[in-house]
Design brief:
By secondary structure, this protein is α/β, with parallel strands linked by helices. Strands 5-6-7-8-9-10-11 form a 7-stranded parallel sheet. It has a 4-stranded antiparallel sheet with strand order 3-2-1-13. The structure holds 2-succinylbenzoate and magnesium ion (MG). Pfam families: MR_MLE_C, MR_MLE_N.
Length: 368
């Protein structure tokens, strides 16, 4: 394909409720969308970087800067682009995987639309719907938490993930177990909030029959994860630490995790995510699909990825109304705890022009 224009569009969406994690509170989502036009059609990508560099070193203003100054110029200079060529074209630029993933996704979307092929079939999906879980923020009180969890269970979510931090761990987990019973699929996510000194609290979670404990320690501290894995029966899962298929293989070999949360943005794109999926499958390690509070654009691609065979746990692929009153695409609606995998060409969803216009805060356009 010959690239003609690249548009970086920022939109702002209020969240339906504040989302509190160990790294801060989000009340709105400031999203960077990439829209490309080629001689064979158009494509969209969503950059998952958050507003602040608190979950990852990347953040939305930084992603836009590196796209503007380094990534988009390299892409526009190429005589011909395909999704597979994007990572090599951008390889000279180190890191910035979320920014790179957004570009690769937009190119892949355009390419697949041009070939009338869906993300799901291209990536290797084996299911037409995926099981959905929900990530529940740190609540103002245990009572409020129980109310929120009850609401999600009633809506049909098949798994609950509680955000935890030192001071909000054993008590909320015990309360949820006591209220909803031992059969509720339940897991926790610390977003790296623990260290060797606070690790005893994580060992105390071992009695609650959790599916997994996600990223308790720092991104670069595989050793501490390996130590915890040895001490508890509950599976240790990595999120922030896993930035590539190589990182996944290393973490598994070191005994740092027995489950991996796959997020395409963190890994530089859907192509690398499939490699992570494959490497984990070969090593007997299940994966599941994480989320970054995506709009319908990012969600469509995530749901396609989650339909691959080694995605063996419900994902953080919740319905649109878990996040937004009004989504950018037709909303994703939960049906019996599942979301349907889009089957149309490319990501199989279209941004609604009037909604985009209403939410847009800035647009930058680059031409060949
Ligand atoms: O750690 O998985 C995480 C949201 C933003 C950043 C990091 C994380 C999350 C979530 C929610 O847990 C995922 C979602 O529902 O999209
Ligand atoms: Mg996480």
């Amino acid at each position: 394909m010959k690239l003609q224009t690249v548009e970086l569009r920022r939109i702002a969406l209020p969240l339906v409720r504040p989302f509190r994690t160990s790294f801060g509170v989000q009340t709105r989502r400031d999203v960077l969308l990439i829209h490309i036009v080629t001689d064979e059609g158009e494509g969209w990508g969503e950059c998952v970087a958050l507003a602040d560099p608190f979950y990852s070193s990347e953040y939305v203003e930084g992603a836009q800067a590196v796209l503007r100054d380094y990534l988009v110029p390299r892409l526009l200079a190429a005589p011909h682009v395909t999704a597979r060529a994007v990572a090599p074209l951008l390889g000279e630029v180190l890191g910035h995987r979320m920014a790179k993933a957004a570009i690769e996704t937009a190119v892949l979307d355009a390419e697949l639309r041009a070939h009338d092929l869906s993300f799901a079939s291209y990536l290797g999906a084996t299911r037409t719907e995926v099981e959905c879980g929900v990530s529940v923020g740190i609540a103002p009180s245990v009572d409020k938490l129980l109310e929120e969890v009850a609401g999600y269970i009633k809506q049909g979510y098949r798994r609950i993930k509680l955000k935890i931090e030192p001071g909000w761990d054993v008590e909320p987990v015990r309360a949820v177990r006591e209220s909803f019973g031992p059969e509720l699929p339940l897991q926790v996510d610390a977003n790296a909030a623990y260290d060797a000194a606070t690790s005893a609290k994580l060992e105390a979670l071992d009695e609650f029959g959790l599916l997994l404990i996600e990223q308790p320690f720092a991104e670069d501290d595989l050793h501490q994860h390996a130590v915890l894995s040895q001490r508890i029966r509950t599976a240790v899962c990595l999120d922030e630490s896993i930035t590539s298929a190589r990182a996944a293989a290393d973490a598994i070999r070191q005994g740092a995790c027995s489950v991996i949360n796959v997020k395409a943005g963190r890994m530089g794109g859907y192509l690398e995510s499939v490699r992570v999926h494959d490497v984990c499958e070969a090593l007997g390690i299940p994966v599941w699909c994480g989320g970054m509070l995506e709009t319908g654009i990012g969600r469509a691609a995530n749901v396609a990825l989650a339909a691959l065979p080694n995605f063996r746990y419900p994902g953080d692929t919740s319905a649109s109304d878990r996040y937004y009153h009004q989504d950018v695409t037709e909303p994703f609606v939960l049906r019996d705890g599942m979301l349907p995998v889009p089957s149309g060409p490319g990501m199989g969803v279209e941004p609604r022009q009037e909604v985009l216009q209403e939410l847009t805060t800035s647009v930058e356009t680059f031409r060949r």
